[in-house]
Structures are given as C-alpha cells and as structure tokens.
Amino acid sequence: MEEEYIRVINITVIGVISWGLIFILVRRIFSNYSFDFSTRIVSTLHATVAVVLATLTIQDWSCPVYPIASTSSLQQMETIAFSLSYMIYDLICSHFDQVLSIDNAVHHSVCILGFVAGLCYRKCASEMVAAIWITEISSPFLHLREILKEIGYRDTDLNLAADVCFATIFSLARIVGGPYLVYVTITADNPFLIKAMALGLQLVSAFWFYKILKMMRYKIVKRSMLNTKSD
Question: What are the protein's UniProt keywords (predicted)?
C-alpha cells in the first residue's frame, strides 16, 4: 500500500511540473495569442486524456459507477492523481492571468479537496473517476468556443455549433448524470467529506448551467437579430 501511495504522489508532483512545462511550450508556440488561449489548449489536452483514462477504469459497462464505495484500485488512483496534478497546476496558473475567475477557483479547490480526500481514504474511486468523466467530457467544447473566437471565428456558424455542442454535452453530463452520481455517492457508505465534495461540485455545476442558459439565450437572440438585418 505504501508503494501505491508513493506512486500516486510521484504522479501528482511530476504531473504538476509537466503541466507547467507543457504550458510554457504552448505559450511559446502560440506567443501571438493570449495567456488564456494557451491555458485552454493545455486544458483541452488534459480533458481528452482524463476522459480516456476514466473510461479505461470502468469495470462494468452495465453499471459504470461500480463497485460503489469500494477500495480504490491502483489504476483508479493513478487516474485521480493525473487529474489532481492538473487541477493544482491550473489553480496556480490562474493566478498569473490578468483576470482571476472566482467560480473556476472554487471549482478547482473543491476538486482538489475531493481528490485528496479520496486518495487518503482510498475509497469511492469509482464515483470519483465517474465524476472526472462527467466534468471533463464537455471541456474540449468549452475551450473550443473561446479558441475559435480568438482565431477569428467569433459570431460564425462554426462558433455557434461549438456553443450548442458544449451546452448540450454539459447539460446531459452534469445536469442529468451529475445528480445521479451525487445521489449514489451520498447514499453509499462514503466518508462525509466525500459526500460534501460531491454536493459542492454539483452546486457549482448548477451555477454554471444557469450561466450557460443565459449565454445560449443571448447567442440565439443575437443570431436572430443578425439574420433579420441580413434579410
């Protein structure tokens, strides 16, 4: 067990350093673009790999959140450590940006606390890996929206398509799948801290869902006005 914890710590520490180096490399390659542009490239990379890793840990596709409240496997702990390293890096990196997003900082803090608690208890990894899958599956489309704007595709059909894809996937994952996962986590024999983190993450998701609804309403109204003027 001690060797497993050492491996998890190594993955986390090396991961934080690696994400920082990747960001520096991306920043150099895309030096003509904003700081936010580079962070979104790195975040998209993490989201893609995290979803793949989370998918590979599923033991029973008929019930992806199985086994519930069980002892974490090494593969699950490695997946959690991978995302933990990214969350730590991104929380640090966000302090170097000109604008600090409070809701994003809260989200990252909740995730970090949850990951650390899960690794320390070495329990409920199935639920936590499922949470990684649910929270990261929409991230590439979230970042694609902003990347398209910065490279000159603002207010285009392509940008609108990215908005719709993001809103749809986010809603299905976090507002449909999220509450189910929270229910499973809370009703199972999990530590109180894990249950609190699950509920906190869902509250953050609900807040973001509210903002997404406002964003989509604005986008649709704006597009309708543009179409009316062009006619």
Answer: Membrane, Transmembrane, Transmembrane helix
CA distance 190 to 129: 15
Q: Considering its fold, how many domains does the chain have in total?
A: 1
Main-chain dihedrals φ then ψ at residue 72, nearest 5 degrees: -70, 140
Contact call for residues 49 and 68 (beta carbons, < 8 A)? no
Three-state DSSP class for 155? coil
Nearest of 85, 115, 120 to residue 1 by alpha carbon: 120
Q: Determine the distance from the C-alpha atom of residue 211 to the mean position of all C-alpha atoms in its chain, rounded to a whole number.
A: 16
Structure tokens at 9: 């710590």
Domain extent, residue 137, equals: 2-230
pLDDT in tens, 102-161: 777 887 888 898 899 889 888 888 889 999 999 999 999 999 999 999 999 888 889 889
Residues 77, 119 contacting (CB under 8 angstroms):
yes
Distance from C-alpha of 50 to C-alpha of 182, rounded to nearest angstrom: 20
Judged by DSSP in three states, 34 sits in coil
Among the listed residues 67, 85, 43, the one whose alpha carbon sits nearest the alpha carbon of residue 127: 67
